[in-house]
Each structure stands twice: as structure tokens, then as C-alpha cells.
Amino acid sequence: MAKKTDENLCKFAYWNGFAVGNICTRVEPLPDSPGRSRIYIMTLGVLAAYRNHGIGSKLVQSVLDYFEEQKDGKFSTVDEIMLHVQTSNTDAIKFYGEKFGFEKGELVENYYKRIDPPHCYVLRKKLR
User: What is the chain's alpha carbon radius of gyration, rounded to the nearest angstrom?
Assistant: First the structure.
């Protein structure tokens, strides 16, 4: 049986009928906390010509808003939201930190296989 996904955790942003951005997240278990989970941001992207118009912010905020609506129901075990960001991507680190209060965590060496630098930081935001 195929696992059911929640369409509210993956979204597209449209401008004049064209997809110009997306966010895709999933709920996954917290490795060191049995029975607890987190929302993991797998991808967030906005086409270059449409950046700096608040599209990325609205996509992230839509996931955070959905969590708030569901935190006592289907997301009752969710404690944080997190993602990996390439160490050289200072714009993304600033975006998540300044706009949403994510904190830069540990360095993960050689996380990426086909890009340079291959290292990333873990960014986390506590939700409870």
C-alpha cells in the first residue's frame, strides 16, 4: 500500500498561471526522541526573476501556518522544523534566520555529493 502524503506540505507558487516557486516538506521521526517528529524542508526554490518579491517567505510561512492549524491534531508529535543549507549559501542562512528564527546548528561535512563545497549546516527552528 502506498504511503499517504499530505498535499499541504508541498506547494507551488504561481504567477500568471506559471509555476515560479515551490516548497516540499515531509514529516520524519526525530532520531533521538522516540515518538517525536519534525518537519523537514526538502526543497524551497523560486525562479531567479521572481526572487525578492516575498514568494519564498510566503511558501515557508504557509507550512508554518499549516503546522499551527494542525499542531494539536495530526502534528501533535512535531517539535521542530529543519533543513540542510550549503555552507556557502549565506543568503539562505540569512533568509531562514532573520525571517523565521531558524538557528544555525552543526556542520555536516561532505553532505552533498555533486556540488562544491559539499558541506552544509543544519538549520532548526523549535516549534514547541
Answer: 15
Catalytic member of 40, 50, 111, 112: 40
Angle at 55 between CA 49 and CA 58, to 5 degrees: 175
Question: What's the pTM?
Answer: 0.92
**96 flagged as catalytic:** no
Q: Which of 39, 34, 45, 53 is nearest to 12 (CA)?
A: 45
Statement: residue 2 has pLDDT above 50: no
Length of the chain: 128
Residue from 50, 53, 84, 111 carrying the catalytic annotation? 84
Active-site residue 40, yes or no?
yes
